[in-house]
UniProtKB/TrEMBL annotation:
It comes from Candidatus Mcinerneyibacterium aminivorans. This is Ferrous iron transport protein A. Gene3D superfamilies: 2.30.30.90. InterPro entries: Fe-transptr_FeoA-like, FeoA-like, FeoA_core_dom, Transcriptional_repressor_C. Keywords: Iron. The keyword Metal-binding does not apply. One of its GO terms (molecular function) is transition metal ion binding. It comes from the Bacteria.
Length: 81
């Protein structure tokens, strides 16, 4: 488990833990970022992260993204879908 800032672009991850206070956690929840949710990292570099949550793209500052801990999504075969 590591913060979103440590994943390269085009990586799908599952949110495992969210740090920060209640306001921050409520804000993320309103954007659809909750424990167990799958996200895709679309851009990670200097500046904000661009992530995809369901069919919505969001930008998170580096400080915000460091408080969201995730694990890389394991590939599943197409037969299991």
């Amino acid at each position: 488990m590591k913060p979103l800032t440590e994943f390269p672009k085009n990586t799908k991850v599952t949110v495992k833990s969210i740090g920060g206070g209640r306001r921050y956690q409520h804000r993320l929840k309103s954007m659809g970022i909750v424990i167990g949710k799958t996200l895709e990292i679309n851009k990670n570099g200097p500046g904000p992260l661009l992530i995809k949550v369901d069919n919505t793209r969001l930008m998170l500052g580096q400080g915000e993204a460091k408080k969201i801990f995730a694990e890389k999504l394991k590939n599943k075969s197409s037969k299991n879908r």
